[in-house]
């Protein structure tokens, strides 16, 4: 035991810059058992979710079909990844059908009690079991499962004390933790089991359970889920050398994480190696949609929503899209589908869909709140993840601008698009260059309720520089996913093009800044 612990400690130390996201023993699957999710009760979703998580440790096996995005990923898996599906009609049939891939027992819980749900998920994670509400106990019994733990009166913390690192339990992951409101019985528990992660919920991020879990994490860890307050949750992760992958409404993340494309993945829109000469007296504008770090949005209605990827105007305008750099490790089929559908640039001034990593890189963190080593770990993890995803430009959302953080995040990247937390355009379009000469471009305008409109942006751009050697000749426009949309970007582009402004995708804006703006 001592040697194992020592090796783990040494390996853990070396691992810090590597991906925190686990892989199954075997990548990809040729067959999935598919159960309809829409008709399941909350306790059934909890049971099926934990079954997905535990079976996914070996290879993806169980998939839930639902009216959200799940249908898209099933279709992508069938069409592009060569997966065939076998429909399973009920939870009981699924439990029976998934043996012998799952040989564990069950943790009894009370799905009406948040404490008990979190305790049951954490115990299932440690014991390799599924979580079963008392109302489903006969279903579990008749499928031949045995009760291995009673979590009806437990909490996440009491389970950690009783089971973590003991002879009966595994050791909780120090690279992934799951923060999830236990009322969301539908979602994300699969990933907790897949990662052998602890699950808890504390909007304050400061109760004793938060402290125990946060203190047990190694630099370069990922918090999956969501908390009470964005700023508080992301600050808690950032100050402990971690980052957040918003995933609270994610279904099927564990099985999706078991499908892996060859890396680096290639987004279809590489810029030509040499740019045309500096445009004569032109202002350059690029749009960038916010919130692509949000895994649950990507998995649910991002791809179909008419405000976003599903917009009828997509493909008529040069559009930048933030995208989680973690996708190749947590849901590669989402990336293969989006990359396959992206509008490919056909020449100067043509429409395009170009993806940018972030915010803020490997996940959502405020790099300006990170100390030296933590910052280096986050920057390295972000660079590795972004490059694996085929993303050269990174969008950083800082709590406030820090030259040291911008410099670290720029290393090895083609460009940094920097947002301030409040408001995103707090840098007013200012441009700087990292010590390696990588452009760091602040947002200048926001298509965002209460901020700019297509008309106000067109009017302001008309007063700005058209000298391509000046940073004042470039405008990055934030497109707020929740109050603006592709239609607004297309309207703005139309007004700007009438003023002979060049509207390009964000990678091209970055390469113009790098090539043409005067700097020391
Ligand atoms: C998933 O659900 C949709 C809609 O209910 C259905 O059309 C589709 O056939 C289902 N796919 C599978 C593989 O069960
Ligand atoms: C389950 O939890 C709910 C909410 O805390 C509680 O009201 C109920 O009595 C519990 N059920 C059992 C069987 O303990
Ligand atoms: C849970 O705790 C309560 C109060 O201590 C007790 O009455 C009840 O029997 C316990 N239930 C279980 C399932 O252990
Ligand atoms: C779980 O156990 C391991 C090994 O003993 C320990 O390092 C870690 O801090 C524990 N996790 C928590 C959340 O207490
Ligand atoms: C998994 O499938 C993808 C898509 O078919 C393929 O590109 C990749 O090489 C496969 N990975 C492994 C390890 O088989
Ligand atoms: C786009 O945003 C505008 C302004 O908020 C709104 O009026 C319009 O309905 C939105 N369109 C779509 C397709 O979301």
Question: What would your notes on this structure say?
Answer:
The chain has helices at residues 2-15, 42-56, 70-80, 91-97, 114-127, 137-142, 156-163, 189-194, 208-215, 230-238, 253-257, 295-299, 327-330, 332-341, 372-388, 403-410, 454-461, 486-498, 506-516, and strands spanning 31-36, 62-65, 84-87, 106-109, 130-133, 147-150, 176-179, 199-200, 221-225, 242-246, 284-289, 318-323, 352-357, 393-398, 415-420, 431-433, 439-442, 445-447, 474-479, 502-503. It is of the alpha/beta class and 520 residues long. Strands 11, 12, 13, 18, 19 and 20 form a 6-stranded parallel beta sheet that branches. A 4-stranded parallel beta sheet has the order 8-7-9-10. The chain has a 4-stranded mixed beta sheet with strand order 14-15-17-16, sandwiched between helices. β18 (445-447), α17 and β19 (474-479) form a beta-alpha-beta unit. Residues 1-16 have low confidence and may be disordered. Bound molecules: 2-acetamido-2-deoxy-beta-D-glucopyranose (NAG) (6 copies). The site of one 2-acetamido-2-deoxy-beta-D-glucopyranose (NAG) has 4 residues, from loops. Residues 282-513 form the GxGYxYP putative glycoside hydrolase C-terminal domain. Residues 32-97 form the GxGYxYP putative glycoside hydrolase first N-terminal domain. Keywords: Signal. InterPro entries: GxGYxYP_C, GxGYxYP_C_sf, GxGYxYP_N_1st, GxGYxYP_N_2nd, GxGYxYP_N_3rd.
For this entry, give a set of tags:
520 residues; alpha/beta; TIM Barrel; 2 domains; six-stranded parallel β-sheet; four-stranded parallel β-sheet; elongated; disordered N terminus; binds 2-acetamido-2-deoxy-beta-D-glucopyranose
């Amino acid at each position: 035991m001592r040697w194992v612990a020592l090796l783990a400690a040494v390996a853990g130390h070396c691992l810090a810059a590597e991906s925190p996201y686990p892989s199954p023993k075997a990548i990809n699957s040729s067959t999935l058992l598919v159960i309809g999710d829409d008709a399941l009760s909350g306790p059934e979703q909890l049971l099926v979710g934990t079954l997905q998580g535990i079976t996914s440790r070996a290879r993806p096996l169980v998939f839930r079909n639902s009216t959200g995005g799940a249908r898209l990923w099933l279709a992508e898996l069938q069409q592009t990844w060569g997966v065939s599906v076998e429909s399973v009609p009920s939870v009981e049939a699924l439990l029976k059908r998934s043996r012998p891939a799952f040989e564990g027992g069950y943790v009894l819980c009370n799905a009406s009690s948040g404490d008990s749900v979190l305790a049951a998920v954490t115990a299932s994670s440690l014991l390799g079991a599924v979580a079963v509400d008392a109302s489903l106990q006969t279903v579990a019994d008749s499928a031949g499962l045995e009760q291995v733990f009673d979590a009806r009166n437990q909490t996440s913390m009491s389970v950690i004390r009783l089971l973590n690192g003991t002879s009966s339990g595994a050791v909780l992951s120090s690279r992934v933790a799951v923060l999830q409101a236990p009322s969301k019985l539908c979602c994300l528990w699969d990933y907790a089991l897949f990662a052998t992660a602890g699950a808890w919920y504390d909007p304050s991020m400061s109760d004793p359970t938060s402290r125990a879990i946060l203190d047990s994490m190694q630099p370069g860890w990922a918090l999956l889920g969501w908390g009470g307050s964005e700023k508080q949750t992301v600050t808690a992760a950032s100050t402990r050398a971690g980052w957040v992958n918003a995933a609270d409404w994610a279904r099927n993340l564990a099985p999706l994480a078991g499908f892996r494309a060859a890396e680096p993945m290639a987004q279809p829109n590489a810029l030509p190696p040499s740019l045309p000469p500096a445009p004569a007296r032109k202002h350059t504008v690029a749009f960038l949609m916010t919130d692509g770090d949000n895994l649950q949005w990507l998995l649910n209605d991002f791809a179909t929503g008419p405000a976003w990827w599903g917009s009828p105007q997509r493909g008529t305008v040069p559009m930048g899209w933030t995208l989680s750099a973690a996708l190749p490790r947590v849901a590669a089929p989402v990336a293969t589908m989006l990359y396959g559908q992206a509008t490919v640039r056909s020449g100067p001034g043509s429409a395009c869909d170009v993806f940018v990593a972030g915010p803020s890189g490997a996940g959502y963190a405020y790099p300006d709140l990170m100390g030296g080593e933590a910052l280096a770990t986050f920057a390295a993890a972000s660079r590795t993840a972004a490059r694996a995803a085929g993303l050269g430009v990174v969008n950083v959302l800082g709590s406030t601008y820090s030259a040291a953080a911008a410099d670290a995040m720029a290393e090895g990247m083609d460009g940094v698009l920097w947002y301030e937390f409040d408001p995103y355009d707090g840098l007013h379009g200012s441009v700087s260059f990292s010590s390696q000469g990588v452009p760091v471009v602040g947002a200048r305008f926001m298509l965002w309720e209460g901020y700019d409109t297509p008309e106000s942006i067109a009017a302001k751009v008309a007063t700005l520089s058209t000298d391509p050697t000046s940073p004042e000749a470039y405008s990055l426009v934030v497109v707020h996913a929740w109050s603006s949309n592709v239609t607004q970007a297309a309207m703005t582009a139309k007004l700007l093009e009438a003023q002979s402004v060049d509207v390009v995708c964000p990678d091209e804006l970055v390469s113009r800044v790098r090539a043409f703006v005067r700097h020391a």
